[in-house]
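Anyone opening a protein record will find just a pair of labelled lines. The record below illustrates this layout.
***
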Amino acid sequence: MRTTSDAEETPKERLDRNLGELLQELRVAQAGVQILFGFLLSIAFTEVYVRDANAFERGTHLVAVLFAVASVGLLTAPAAWHRILFRRGKRQEIMHLATRTTIAGLVCLSLAFTAAVLLLAEMVIGGWAAFVVAGVCGLFIAALWFAVPLRERE
């Protein structure tokens, strides 16, 4: 591994490093998506859910599943593109698109987490308190994942 500064990297080396870092970040995010998606899929097959879930809970569950599916698609797309376009001189294009789909995938993942918390809170405590709990969790994720890094960029 090269230990020189960014200024000494060639554009190709920087692109290779950035792509490697992005793919590693996607591996980390994918673990969270897989755990959440497995949890969401398993809920629909529980006796309590089948017997007791009302229309709001079922709708919230479906929204969470759809955001999780969107997240899976968006977060795995860069790996698929990399493999399909491997050695075709398209790394710059892959990085450009992958950055956008990764951010969109993380937005979908944060919404899936928030919807899953809303579903859980609705089934456990119900009412307005469920919305408060889900809202606080959603704001917490939004602050950590998006607000803090955006503030640091400036």
